[in-house]
Design brief:
Shape: globular
CATH class of the largest domain: Alpha Beta
Strand content: 5-15%
CATH topology of the largest domain: Rossmann fold
Number of helices: 20
CATH superfamily of the largest domain: P-loop containing nucleotide triphosphate hydrolases
Number of strands: 14
Number of domains: 3
Radius of gyration: 27 Å
Strand order of the largest sheet: 3-4-2-5-6-1-7
Oligomer: single chain
Distance between the termini: 69 Å
Length: 482
């Protein structure tokens, strides 16, 4: 089916309802992202669509706008759109985006159904007549089995982050749900990667889909500085504290490969007076919600998460992404670092390694993404303290510009009368504020050296090829060294 709409990159040129346009304007959007510009006309035209895109491309709006547009007001109390997400966090995030988009349309109502929440409460929401259902595979299947969710009128079925759902073992649930929705429907599938299992789903359940491949690797990588640090085994935590105190991010995400390490690292950072909070699948829904609220509000400026738990985090002002543990693949690496450098802002991605095997794995990632990951060295304690002083002085300038400190001048005068110069008073205050004890810096920062950092002796920096090594070996053998 061909495109029916003339579209440039402005939402107002889409053939969508006035209430949706009003909501988009209220959300502050004017120009479409690449995936929105390519996908929305195809979806509005009724085509099945396969969208290949990474995090941060705006794909939620790409399917949410057409989904709301196609709601049939004559059967508005029945579910007409079903969106499956891999995690509770992503389901909640998607639900909130839908709510914003239909804020001015009284005929549209969404319900979020996912594990960890009260089943009775969710049944109540479904009975109120939700026509858009957003949920996780396991809980959606539970509602189907209980007959509290009927899918007879589903016209659009969306699989969001389909590759991650398969990685999490939801293949059987997805297929059961697909068998419960009408054959005559529109199916949309969004995925960051295209493994064989995704190809099988497309082949079996989609009809002549339109493929939209948004290759945003270059765009993402151009905005992100990538560094790695080679650390002695067992000293990564100390290195992380040094780096957090040196870069002073207002918001950062630290990625770990296990739930155990998330908990362990969150406790370690908290004990060292760094506001950190963990996020992983074994936490209760309430605890997960509190973690996200704390991170979004900057109450906790460091979020420590597993790859799965981080799905659904949609925050545009993450300063740094730390790979405390090396990601399992280049795809996961791209997913992780894509959390920073968003909305046109620059970002920083830092990876910690501590073995030759990790160094080789990082080298493979570097080759795969065709981007430079530069080796760097830990900052010295003195440079960290200097940065703290500089930061305090900038804060002091801002405070002084507000001119609300007049009532304290009398105290300075009293000190002057006692023989202290105003210059020494100011210097003493800066020293007090920026000192190790007052800033609650961990004891590792007071080390005179960073002995837990490995001495530079690797080949990752030079990128010596296997052929070069063999050539050197043959030469040395010829010289009688072997």
């Amino acid at each position: 089916m061909g495109e029916l709409y003339t579209v440039d990159n402005e939402f107002r040129n889409l053939n969508i309802s006035a209430p949706i346009l009003k909501a988009i304007d209220k959300m502050g959007f004017e120009k479409m992202t690449n995936i929105q510009q390519e996908a929305i006309p195809q979806i509005l035209a009724g085509s099945d669509v396969v969208g290949i895109s990474h995090t941060g491309t705006g794909k939620t709006l790409a399917f949410a706008i057409p989904a709301i547009q196609m709601i049939d007001k004559n059967i508005s109390s029945h579910p007409q759109v079903l969106v499956l997400c891999p995690t509770r966090e992503l389901a909640v995030q998607t639900f909130n985006e839908f709510k914003k988009l239909y804020a001015y349309d009284n005929f549209v109502k969404a319900a979020a159904i996912y594990g960890g929440e009260n089943m009775v409460k969710q049944i109540g929401e479904l009975k109120k007549g939700a026509n858009i259902i957003i949920g996780t595979p396991g809980r959606v299947q539970d509602h189907i089995n209980r007959r509290t969710l009927k899918l007879d009128n589903i016209k659009m079925f969306v699989l969001d982050e389909a590759d991650e759902m398969l990685n999490m073992g939801f293949k059987e649930d997805i297929e059961l749900i697909l068998s419960s929705v009408p054959q005559k429907r529109q199916t949309l599938l969004f995925s960051a990667t295209m493994p064989q299992a995704i190809k099988d789903i497309i082949s079996n359940y989609l009809t002549s889909p339109q493929y939209i491949n948004i290759e945003n690797k270059t765009q993402v990588l151009n905005l992100i500085e990538q560094l790695y640090f080679d650390i002695e085994k067992g000293r990564k935590k100390d290195a992380l504290i040094l780096l957090i105190n040196y870069y002073m991010p207002s918001r950062a995400i630290v990625f770990c490969n296990t739930k155990l390490m998330v908990d362990e690292l969150a406790d370690f950072l908290t004990q060292n007076n760094i506001n950190a909070i963990g996020l992983h699948g074994d936490m209760s829904q309430n605890a997960r919600n509190l973690s996200m609220q704390g991170f979004k509000s900057s109450k906790n400026r460091i979020l420590i998460a597993t790859d799965v738990a981080a799905r659904g985090i949609d925050i545009y002002d993450v300063d740094i992404v730390f790979n405390f543990d090396l990601p399992q693949s280049s795809e996961y690496y791209m997913h992780r670092i894509g959390r920073t450098g968003r909305a046109g802002k620059t970002g920083l991605a830092i990876t910690l390694i501590s073995s030759a095997a990790q160094q080789k794995a990082l080298w493979d990632i570097k080759k795969d993404i065709k981007s430079d990951i530069k080796k760097s060295f830990l900052p010295k304690p003195g440079s960290i303290k200097d940065k703290l002083v500089d930061s305090f002085i900038e804060e002091l300038k801002i405070f002084m510009s507000k001119n609300n400190y007049e009532k304290y001048i009398k105290h300075v005068k009293h000190l002057s009368q006692e023989g202290y110069s105003e210059q020494n008073i100011a210097a003493a205050l800066i020293a007090m504020h920026s000192g190790t004890d007052n800033m609650f810096l961990p004891s590792v920062i007071d080390r005179t050296d960073n002995s837990f950092e490995k001495k530079p002796k690797d080949n990752f920096k030079t990128g010596r090829s296997k052929q070069t090594k063999e050539k050197n070996y043959k030469y040395s053998k010829k010289q009688g060294r072997h």
